[in-house]
Amino acid sequence: MTATALTWCRRSPEVEAMSWTVAGVELKSRLLLGTSHYPSLQCLSDAVQASGTEVLTVGLRRLQPEAGGGSSFWQRIQSLGRRVLPNTAGCHSAQEAITLAQMAREIFGTPWIKLEVVGDDYTLQPDPFGTVEAAKALVRDGFAVFAYTSDDLIVAQRLRDAGCAAIMPGAAPIGTGRGPLNPHALATLRERLPDAVLVVDAGLGRPSHAAQVME
């Protein structure tokens, strides 16, 4: 199963129950859905339709035939009519992520980018220094940056100050499905960054995990 992410924003009572705004775009669904590791393209399509998501995260490397992608994958994504959020998954340095983001902008035709800079291959923990460095450069270059990070408050503050459109703290290590390991840290992020768009990303394996995050 692919990774999902869930927004966690404060809203006034007048705002529609599920709507939220990121990078100047209003969305009704709070679910961002990944597109990797599905057993078939039909299964991917069915999941997208059933979820009601409006945003699909797509890795540039998924367009490579050896990664199970290629033109058929991209054609299927286009046919779904959703907004695409390209990501820099697999990058290990700020410069590598910047280069891949620029390529993604040309290919997908969007300034949106989910920034991922891997710091450790075993846990897939993000590199905080490389992430902040890349975020600053990409924002200057006109990108709307969705930065994947840990639940560390200081790093999140640096990403906010860099001008990121959204900050995406992980609930648990990527692929574990263990749910929020440190709810207090996530609550602290929400308290200390009241105006930031927070998208809890990675490690959500059950509907109850998503409900816990929303609470």
Helix/strand layout:
Blueprint: E1 4-8, E2 20-22, E3 25-27, E4 31-34, H1 41-51, E5 55-59, H2 71-79, E6 83-87, H3 94-108, E7 112-115, H4 128-140, E8 144-149, H5 153-162, E9 166-169, H6 183-192, E10 198-201, H7 207-214
Parallel strand pairs: 4-5, 5-6, 7-8, 8-9
Antiparallel strand pairs: 1-4, 1-10, 2-3
Helix pairs in contact: 3-4, 4-5
Structure report:
Helices cover 35% and strands 20% of the residues. The chain contains 7 helices and 10 strands. α3 (94-108) packs across α4 (128-140) and α4 runs parallel beside α5 (153-162). The chain has one domain (4-214): Aldolase class I (TIM Barrel, Alpha-Beta Barrel). It has helices at residues 41-51, 71-79, 94-108, 128-140, 153-162, 183-192, 207-214; strands spanning 4-8, 20-22, 25-27, 31-34, 55-59, 83-87, 112-115, 144-149, 166-169, 198-201. The strands form 3 sheets. It has a 5-stranded mixed beta sheet. A 3-stranded parallel beta sheet has the order 7-8-9. With 215 residues, it is an alpha/beta fold. β4 (31-34), α1 (41-51) and β5 form a beta-alpha-beta unit.
